[in-house]
Specification:
- The protein is of the alpha/beta class.
- 28% of the residues lie in helices and 26% in strands.
- The chain has a single domain, classed as Severin (3-Layer(aba) Sandwich).
- It is globular.
- The protein starts with 5 loop residues before the first strand and ends with a helix.
Length: 140
């Protein structure tokens, strides 16, 4: 079962370099097809939330972390929150969705400092406006 999924040693340092105001704007994580491990699929330095959404495939599950920082201000203070996205599009199929659901906790519990968590099956459900409101609620 996927509860024995480990993390590639690069996963946590990359996340730490994403926040606060780190080198990356977002990171996409995937389950390795070759071994029971969560790997980094992509690290992006400069991007918008629309770019992040466009990198989420319509037929493959992924995990993503997006850093909201300079685009969100709270009471005129510098602000940074990271959003964890568990992406499970309907076209991915039940088996893949179940594997990613089972393995999610192995990654999520290691990513210290997340501001919000959302599960998405379509891009409209995790639109920028919806997740921005959610991330802002976590600040209060």
């Amino acid at each position: 079962m996927t509860t024995h999924i480990s993390l590639n040693p690069e996963c946590i340092p990359a996340f730490q370099d994403l926040q606060p105001r780190g080198s990356y704007k977002y990171i996409l994580y995937t389950l390795s097809p070759a071994k029971p491990e969560i790997d980094i699929l992509k690290k992006v330095k400069w991007a918008t939330y629309a770019d992040f959404l466009s990198d989420l495939p319509d037929d493959k599950c992924l995990y993503g972390v997006y850093s909201f920082d300079s685009e969100v201000e709270a009471e005129d203070k510098p602000w940074n929150k990271s959003l964890f996205v568990h992406w499970t599009p309907e076209k991915a199929g039940k088996e893949q969705t179940a594997k990613y659901g089972d393995a999610k906790i192995n990654l999520y519990k290691e990513l210290m400092g997340l501001g919000a968590h959302v599960e998405g099956v379509d891009k409209e459900g995790i639109s920028e406006g919806k997740v921005r409101d959610m991330v802002m609620r976590y600040e209060k």
